[in-house]
Amino acid sequence: MIVCCPNSEADNQASRKLAEQLLSAVGRVAFVEDERLMDAVTAVSGSGPAYIFHFIEAFSAAGVAAGLDADLAMLLAKQTVFGAAKLAIESHETPSRLREQVTSPNGTTAAALNVLMADQDGLRADDQGS
């Protein structure tokens, strides 16, 4: 993922189109108009892989703690993240809706999400619909 912020020398459609054509050879391209947003871009996509890798480590460790073989637990964690990311990218549904679709009421997923999404100490997301 590449995010560009055009300066005054490149703030026209032709320059933006050229940048997008060149950079799309190596990944998806997006633009922000305010350079101050680049810190937020870095926090999400630059640092984001480390957060996902830590989640995979923790997810795998939980599988091992529940009795799974370490190699199987790691494979399951990696494949789960891969499959969920692929579905989120390819689906027309929002991640919130996808989460709801795989959560059985009063099931183990709902119970775990109650902990993960707790108001006080949970991993919260403002509902942005994305």
Tell me what the structure shows.
- The protein is mainly alpha-helical and 130 residues long.
- The chain has 3 domains: 2-46, no CATH class; 48-90, ProC C-terminal domain-like fold, CATH 1.10.3730.10; 93-123, no CATH class.
- 58% of the residues lie in helices and 5% in strands.
- The protein has helices at 13-23, 38-46, 48-65, 70-90, 95-101, 108-116; strands at 2-4, 29-31.
- The protein has a two-stranded parallel sheet with strand order 1-2.
- α3 crosses α4 (70-90).
- The longest helix has 21 residues, at 70-90.
- The protein is elongated, with a radius of gyration of 19 Å.
- It starts with a strand and ends in a 14-residue tail after the last helix.
- The model has no long low-confidence stretch (mean pLDDT 91).
* Number of H/I helices: 6
What percent of the residues sit in helical stretches (DSSP H or I)? Answer: 55-70%
Amino-to-carboxy terminus distance: 17 Å
Q: How many domains, as an integer?
A: 3
